[in-house]
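Section 5: illustrative case.
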């Protein structure tokens, strides 16, 4: 979408950005904005004229996301926190939408990825060190993030839901690698090293219904109290991390499976032995029932099998179907609410 300053600001706010005061904007301002979702990520492509902007501090309750800004054309200087970044094409920077922001730019194009803080799993102290700091997008992990951001912004609509979830996880992981690399080559503290090792242990054993804090602590020769202490400044506790990763695995399988599956079987495969408890937990986390994913999957599979190669969703096919059939065919396209 391309529009004047008022419509551009409205679209920007709807995408999750703070309103900016642009000192250079006049009546002839024209800016372009396009938004794509990729799993839990939101990608916002902006095309703007020369700008000099200030974004005021926002309430902490608006801080669900962090932002990775990737330049594709032009140059910009950004000040936030203790950082002062000069960015050129392919460079990137981590921003916090709740903090005061100042920037000046030439006519430019950029892609911003809004990432839930809980997905990024970076400690507050590390975020403070990285906010407003330039990350080189010409080589190393920064280059991979830069390329993926630009390509994902163009092609995110072509992903099926399961593909989007897995692709988003890969993008988040690469962003984390790029940010950690920018922190320097310093050796991780002993606690960080142990916590990373434990997180890997958990990931490899999610299907084990006996996976629990006492067993994890014993496997690493530490006390349960010490285990909880390691995760006290993290977004999720040990038990919550296990639960969340299991739910994510179940959701991905229920969404993307091309074969007939049951909610109970998938839940049991990922360590949930009580189907009722799993259903309540899934509904509380995602806002809809796990069974809705299976129903949606079956509808899509049935539609794919019955549609002819030249009539898959075509206008002629819809015209030849009775009204009742057309309505049932449409029902399979609705996804559970996000």
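Designed sequence:
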């Amino acid at each position: 979408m391309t529009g004047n300053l008022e419509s551009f600001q409205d679209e920007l706010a709807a995408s999750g950005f703070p309103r900016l005061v642009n000192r250079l904007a006049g009546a002839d301002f024209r800016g372009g904005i396009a938004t794509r979702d990729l799993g839990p990520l939101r990608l916002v492509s902006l095309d703007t004229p020369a700008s000099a902007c200030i974004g005021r501090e926002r309430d902490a309750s608006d801080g669900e996301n962090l932002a990775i800004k990737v330049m594709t054309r032009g140059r910009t200087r950004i000040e936030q926190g203790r950082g002062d970044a000069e960015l050129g094409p392919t460079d990137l920077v981590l921003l916090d939408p709740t903090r005061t922001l100042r920037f000046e730019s030439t006519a430019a194009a950029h892609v911003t990825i809004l990432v839930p803080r809980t997905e990024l799993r970076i400690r507050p102290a590390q975020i403070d060190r990285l906010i407003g700091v330039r990350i080189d997008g010409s080589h190393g992990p920064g280059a991979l993030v830069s390329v993926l951001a630009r390509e994902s912004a163009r092609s995110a609509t072509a992903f099926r839901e399961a593909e989007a979830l897995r692709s988003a996880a890969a993008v988040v992981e690469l962003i984390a690698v790029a940010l950690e690399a920018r922190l320097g080559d310093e050796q991780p503290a002993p606690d960080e090293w142990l916590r990373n090792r434990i997180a890997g242990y958990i990931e490899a054993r999610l299907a084990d219904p006996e996976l629990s804090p006492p067993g994890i602590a014993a496997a690493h020769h530490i006390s349960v109290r010490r285990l909880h202490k390691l995760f006290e400044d993290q977004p999720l506790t040990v038990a919550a991390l296990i639960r969340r990763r299991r739910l994510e695995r179940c959701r991905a399988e229920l969404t993307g499976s091309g074969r007939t599956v049951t909610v109970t079987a998938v839940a049991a495969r990922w360590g949930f032995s009580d189907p009722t408890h799993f259903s309540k937990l899934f509904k509380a986390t995602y806002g809809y029932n796990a069974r809705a994913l299976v129903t949606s999957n079956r509808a899509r599979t049935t539609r794919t099998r019955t549609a002819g190669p030249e009539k898959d969703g075509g206008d002629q096919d819809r015209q030849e179907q009775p009204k009742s059939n057309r309505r049932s065919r449409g029902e399979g396209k609705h996804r559970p609410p996000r």
